[in-house]
Amino acid sequence: MDKIVRNQIKLEFISIPENVGLARITIAALASQLDLTLNDLEEIKVATSEAVSNAIIHGYRNKPAGIVKLIGSLYEDSIVIEVIDEGVGIADIPQAMQPAFTTDPERMGLGFVFMQSFMDEVKVESEINNGTRVILTKKLEGAGIQKAVS
Amino acid sequence: MSFIFNSKNRTLLVKITGELDLVTAKEFRERLDKAIDEMFTKNLFLDLTRVSFIDSSGLGVILGRYRKIQEKRGIMIIYGMNTNIKRILELSGILSIIPAFNSENEAWTYLERKSLKEA
Known about the structure:
CATH topology of chain B: Transcription Regulator spoIIAA
Structural class of chain A: alpha+beta
Number of strands of chain A: 5
Oligomer: heterodimer
Largest sheet of chain B: 5 strands, mixed
Largest interface: A-B, 24 and 20 residues
Protein name (chain A): Anti-sigma F factor
Radius of gyration of chain B: 13 Å
Radius of gyration of chain A: 15 Å
CATH class of chain A: Alpha Beta
CATH architecture of chain B: 2-Layer Sandwich
Strand content of chain A: 25-35%
Family (chain A): Belongs to the anti-sigma-factor family.
Number of domains of chain A: 1
Distance between the termini of chain B: 38 Å
Keywords (chain A): ATP-binding, Kinase, Nucleotide-binding, Serine/threonine-protein kinase, Sporulation, Transferase
Catalytic activity (chain A): L-seryl-[protein] + ATP = O-phospho-L-seryl-[protein] + ADP + H(+); L-threonyl-[protein] + ATP = O-phospho-L-threonyl-[protein] + ADP + H(+)
InterPro entries (chain A): Anti-sigma-factor_SerPK, Anti-sigma_F, HATPase_C_sf, HATPase_dom
Number of helices of chain B: 4
């Protein structure tokens, strides 16, 4: 049985770095409808930032003409953030998720490490030349949703 | 994002205000590199007291400057991180590479001790 969505936002923006902050703040505003700790909120912001940065830098190779889709969903027991691009895709997902794997010397290759450390679940679907979808899930402890629906 | 640069005895002090992410990383890197070159910098202090957000893009720039200062046989120190920033730095492994302190005073003490040892 599908879970009931309690709230959902969808946002599309062009692939420029300025929109990383926009995505992170939008998700933080949505997440703040839940009864989360400040730590949780900060972790969600970092994970979102990493996923959207990856879509821009790697998915679209820093070209501003791409469209990044962001979907944030609040469920009874979790928040799910999806970041979707229609860029080049990832050839080897397990390799891309390795710590310190990077295609750029000025970067740390920590994007996926942060996503995995800060979220309970990180799912990556990707196809060469057909884009990437990153699904980040954070589970809520206790009655997190109460605040959102009351 | 804004920066305040100060230089004392070839130690460049940089006070950073704002968010260090993909959008600010490029400016951060360029302005730091320019100041490092123009002020004949040997040592670098980064004051992160007013940094409200950091992700791997910002960390990449910090690590890149660390390598640059290492090449000059200088010392790089970071200080003033809030709890959230500190957690992210810890997780990244940067805190086991770059000396980190609570305040500028502690950073100077560390630098003096290090310099005495080398003298």
